[in-house]
Protein 1
Amino acid sequence: TCRSPMAEGLFRKLLADKLQCQEDELSDRGFIVGSAGLAAAMGAPPSPEGVAILAEQGIDIQAHESQPLTERLLDQSDHLFTMTQGHRAAILSERPDLEDSVKLLSPEGKDVSDPIGGGFQCYIECKNEIEKHLTQIISQINIPQN
């Protein structure tokens, strides 16, 4: 379990920075950030490499536990970002009604590389790729002024 936990941790941090709040205040601001996998086992920990790489940025995903993507999660989500075109196609084959809310994480339409089986450098490159895409997504979020 590596890409989704890294994306969740990075998204929480980047979004909290944009909203100028703490990560645990995101839900108070109307944002719930989570991750799930199409073939994820319930409760699996994140990869040690992902934990270490994000810890270097002050992001702690050590307590993350994986979960499978469920109908309930699909129904509760306003936006779903997938790592690959195959993931998006699999979701839409079951739920074509979600066409507008299920998007590829990469705005260029490229799959996010999977570092599993690669060395530590592969995890760093994957993290950088995810962070680049999330930064673009977060830049498009409008923050209501109080």
Protein 2
Amino acid sequence: MGTRGLTKVVDRNGVTKVAQYGQWDHYPSGQGVNVLNFLLEEPKRVHKLELALDKCEFVSEDVSEILYAEYSNKYPDNEEMDRFTMVMPAFSRDTGSDILKVVYYSAGKVLLTDSSDFENDDLFCEGVYEINYQTNKFISKYGDVVAEFPLNNLPEETDYLLAFAKQEVNA
């Protein structure tokens, strides 16, 4: 069973540009560290990701279902569905926080599904990892623990994980 969650990016105007549901590893040492390491990977990554948000476009649930149906009619076996995940990663529950790489590296429009509502699912949404350009913060929520870090002063992985350990001890 997976640890489900959300990878979210909010632009400087407060508009959600990415809200990617993920099925796997939405605990701080999983998807949280993945987001953190993505942001720390190269100088100016935080700024360049913000510029890439213009490529993001949410599509309706109807459109995403049509895309999925067209592909599964064309390629009915499971192996071909793996190919769909490669071609349209934004429509896969397996992509998780790697959606940030899709947005960052894509040359053209990035079609996305808006899973923002999943953040409010107290039963099934176990972790939310948000890059918020309006507040200039990387916000990680796991269970009842919330850790916030300035985008211009992100912690190293050890300090990031320590923030969750400290809050759990103090709770």
Protein 3
Amino acid sequence: MEPIDIVITWVDGEDPIHKAKRRKFLGNGRGETFAEVAAPTRFRSVGEIYFCIASILRFAPFVHHIYIVTDAQNPHADRFAARFFPESHIPITVVDHRTIFRDYEDLLPTFNSLSIETMLWRIPGLSERFVYFNDDVLLVAPVSPSDWYDEAGQPIIYGYWHCTWTARLVRWLRLPKHGHRTFTYKDSMLNAADVLGGEARKRFVRMIHASLPLQRSFFEQFYGQHPELLVENARWRFRNPHQFNPQSLFITYLALHNRCVLRPQGQTVIYLAPRPERIKKVAQSLRAAIVNRAAKICCINSLDMGAPEQQLGIVAWIGQRLGIDFLALRAERLRKQQAEERA
């Protein structure tokens, strides 16, 4: 079986050094001061990386290698794995931004997921098949390689075709906020369709928030033919409305050439977005998730923005699925932080 690697992007935005670095580059005259692109929730970590790592070790033991891409930080996932999964032999490697931005160091530091994603394929030793996880994505049931790639090696993508002109109309009708229109996840996909041109100007694949199976050679060939697009997309330190989503570019291109498999979200992918104003809705979604035995993948969008009871309920559910008491771990981590502050 051809190896499958996992790539996870992560940052601890509460780290004082990272905070100071971020503040230094805000308002640098490149149109990057929009509140939403530098909102604290984009960088705040409340333990999601450990949910993600634990879920892979628990439910995808066939994985060849796990890479965590970060900015001069280390979540010490190897220690976590040794404590809770001593039988696992999956290597975990921390990859610094400087490694994937080699020869482009002038573009660093960056605080922009789209810029970082543009460079992920440059991880040294990365296998041809790799699955991309944001740190807010985790597995909630056993998976096999066939959940990500079919027998022919084609990626299996959760998503659907979206009409390009409809997306353009929605973007045009969107009311300005703070003097400009918000740049959304879908907008980055629309930009990818514009880059591809041709049939993509009529339709593109609307990706679901889930793990994304990718192919390293595609990005190597694409950026080899279009080096100017690599630099243009990776140069923004904070999200910019001109950027395209690299994964969307890959998926829409393959779908237009019948080289990937599209599947509906169905019951397989769970999406939770806890917010204080959505107490009832999120509670209902969580109850559905608890009894959903068909689910394999879950995305928890901005857990830090949830009300305390929402966070507790979701973390408890994750702990039950993964067999780890994450609530006790959070309390343990808090006691350690308080002791360090008193010292």
Protein 4
Amino acid sequence: MDLQHPQYAKDRQLLSELLSRAAEQPIADWVLAEIARLRIRYLGFPGARDMQQDLDKTLERWQMSEAELFARTRLIHQRLDLYRESFSNRDDWA
């Protein structure tokens, strides 16, 4: 039985925006960071299969492994504080 993630609606909307920007070159830092964040959130989650499939397809399109995505985003987070500079101050721990 698949479960509904409490952040699904908001995440689905965000992922749709990210997918529209995923073809841009070079890939924007915030796009990489958000894809990685969503990847972690839905990793092993028993539901939201469409989100997981879209995340998989995005990595395939970029010809990037999950390990490469996480390595790149670690470097981004060392260099920038994306979430303080670019996103709302509201915590999103779910």
